[in-house]
Amino acid sequence: PNKPVLTYWDLGHSDKTAIWFMQYNGLEYNFIHYYENRLQKMGHYIEYLQERKYIYTVHNIPHDGDAETVSNITPKKQLQAAFPNAKVRIIDRPSKKLVGINAVRSVLDLCSFDEDETSDGWACLCNYAYKINESGQFSKEPDHDTPWSHGADGMQTFGLSIKPEKPK
User: Fold this and answer.
1) pLDDT tens for residues 108-117?
2) Interacting residues of 65 by C-beta distance below 8 A, sequence separation 6+
């Protein structure tokens, strides 16, 4: 409970908002909790995070976290106001979805998941799949209109947030 927690998001409203909660343990990434909901405003998610009583150090949100909402306040600004001691990072959208998928694949062996607290998120990762076109062939894009795509996209925010070390 005294270790810092980082969050990784996929933002939505009509679609789901998904949040992964992670703590470092040496070289491992320990995912300790997962939460998703829909049709809620940002205040709901902030309240949920506050109720968890974690020590947040970084909230990683996707590119649309800088987009103004109806109230003209971005999700980034709302998180910064609610958690002044934590950093809020915008993770850029990759040029192709495959870049995000491969970013997750490259670090998945270093991840561990709390079996109970992340079971819904783990189901998202296990069921994430590519679209199938009219002729029965897999497309080059994942199926976004599924119950599990948002949890998988939140995990892509994690994968894309990790910057590989540059060779010296």
Assistant:
1) 999 999 999 9
2) 9, 11, 74, 75, 76, 79, 88, 90
